[in-house]
Amino acid sequence: AVVMDPRTGEVLSLANWPSVDPNDIGAADEEARENRAVTTAFEPGSTFKAFTVAGAMEDQLIDPSTRFDLPPELQDADRTIGEAHARGYVNLSVGEILAQSSNVGSVMIGMKLGAERFDHWVRRFGFGAPTDVGLSGESPGIVLKPEDYSGSSMGNMPIGQGIAVTPMQMAAAYSALANGGVYRRPTLLRSEVDEEGRRIVSKRTATEVAEMLEGVLAAGGTAEEASVPGYVVAGKTGTAEKVDPETGTYSETKFVASFAGFAPAKDPRLLVSVMVDEPQGMYYGGEVAAPAFEQIMAFALPYLRIPPD
Which residues are within 8 A (CB) of 20 and not within 5 positions of it... i.e. 6 or more apart? Predict the structure, then answer.
């Protein structure tokens, strides 16, 4: 879990589990000794859809009210894109596509962008390069160049599969949406705060995406479990299949669950990103990562004296 102030990029808290006894570090598993916030690159799944939507909005291809006729499944080269839960034909707005986390709708938005513009926005949000937060062993993640895309890449990447990011990259990118479209390099030291920042998208785009992300936590969204009493929260769930290293195909039993969000939604003061690797039993981001997000936020918001909405 990573906790940031989206206005400044300051990392306020960071935690890994399982924990390590500092008096006996050698007794811990090698994986437990890693700072997975920066060393682990994972496929983010649906948390990535917010950036697909933001890029298409900034290119003026869609707006929150744009509607799509969505079939139950979509074929892209050798890949069949379906929903997490089977459904029939529906007509959804962009806001509803985000709130309900429609894979088919998000891929259709990504296809409107096309490979070159999609790649532009992925890198614009900081993916594919280290954040330079100041922690050792930082991974740049894995982002293919458009010329290396396979026939089904645009059926994968707009929904956060076939691309790998770190929890720190995800926190920093969501902070840009929370901060009116301005990206600030995450930092551990207040003296190194990026005062100027870098504008990624317009304030209007960032505001409209943030408003749509409020719908994720509303009734009918995928993350009612992330709601924090007294506060309006914006965020997104993610559930991604892991690649089985033995077969090279996606596993049907191993997943990464995640949630990224910020509050108060209209004046974000706190951002939390949670990633759970291979949850047991329940595995959807809304079931596993969202409750952890809620517990962190429910403690931190009043602790930091951030007033309710």
Answer: 28, 32, 33
Tokens of 207: 């505001």
The DSSP call for residue 305 is T
Q: What is the Cα–Cα distance from 222 to 209, expressed in whole angstroms?
A: 16
What burial letters (b/e) apply to 244-275, b meaning 16+ CB within 10 Å? eeeeeebeeeebbbbbbbbbbbeebbbbbbbb
258, 273 contact by CB (below 8 A): yes
Asked if 15 and 38 touch (Cβ cutoff 8 Å), the reply is no
CA atoms of 60 and 204, how far apart (whole Å): 12
Question: With bands split at pLDDT 50, 70 and 90, how would you rate the model's confidence at 219?
Answer: low
Q: DSSP states of 160-202 as a string?
A: T-S-BB-HHHHHHHHHHHHTTTEE---BS-GGG--SS-EE-S-
- For helices 49-58 and 167-178, the axis angle rounded to 10 degrees is 40
Phi, psi at 273, each rounded to 5°:
-120, 130
Q: Residues 6 or more apart from 29 whose CB is under 8 A from it?
A: 18
Q: Confidence class of residue 247 from pLDDT cuts 50, 70 and 90?
A: confident
Residue 245 pLDDT exceeds 90: no
Determine contact, residues 10/195, Cβ cutoff 8 Å: no
Q: Which two tokens stand for residue 77?
A: 């080269």
Question: pLDDT, tens digit, for every residue of 149-208?
Answer: 998 899 999 999 999 999 999 999 999 999 999 999 999 999 999 999 999 999 999 999
Helix axes 203-214, 49-58, angle to 10 degrees: 140
Residues with catalytic roles: 46
